[in-house]
Amino acid sequence: MSIVMNVALFLHLAAVAVWVGGMVFAQFCLRPSLADVSPQLRLPLIEAVFGRFFNWVGASVIVVLASGGFMMARFGGAHAPWPVHVMAGFGILMMLTYGHVRFAVFPRIRRAVQAQKWPDGARAVDTMRRLVALNLVFSVIAIGSAVLSRGF
Ligand code: HEM
User: Fold this and answer.
1) Whose CA is nearest to atom 24 of ligand 1?
2) One GO CC term of this entry (predicted)?
3) Any ligand 1 atom below 6 A from CB of 143
C-alpha cells in the first residue's frame, strides 16, 4: 500500500473513531447518567454537549468522505469490491441521519431550552436518541463491510 493510501486510511479511521466513539459515549454513558436529572438541568447540558459534539462530527464527515472517496477512486470507483460500496452506502445514510439530527432536531432542542419549554425539549431529545441509535446500527454495518472488503 502506498504512503498516500496509508495516510488516507489513517485519517479515515481517526475520523470514524471520533464519530462512532462519541455516539457510543453519548448513548451508553451520558444519557443513562442523566436519566434522573431534572429537565431544567438536563436539557441545557445536552444542548451544550451536543452543540460541541456536532462540530466534531461535521469535521469527521468531511474527513470520512474525502478520505473514503479518495481510497474508493484508487480502488477503481464503481469497480471497487461490493463491501466497499456497502460501507459507502451506509456511510452516506449515517451522514444524512446526522444532517437531519443537526439541522432539524437539534434546533428544536435549542429553541425549547431558550423558551424553557421542557416537555418539547424532552421530546426532541428522545427523537435524537433514536436517530443516534439508528446511526450506531449503520456504523456497525459499515465497519463490518469494511472488514469484509479485505477478503476481496
Ligand atoms: C462515503 C463514505 C465512505 C467511503 C466512500 C468509504 C470508503 C472506504 C475505502 C475505499 C476503504 C479502504 C478499503 C480497504 O482497505 O479494503 C475504507 C476503509 C475503511 N472504512 Fe470506509 N468509507 C466510507 C465510510 C465509512 C464509515 C461511515 C465507516 C465506519 C462507520 C467506515 C469504516 C471503515 C473502516 C473500519 C475501514 C478499514 C478497513 C480495513 O482496512 O480493513 N467507512 N473506506
Assistant:
1) 91
2) membrane
3) yes
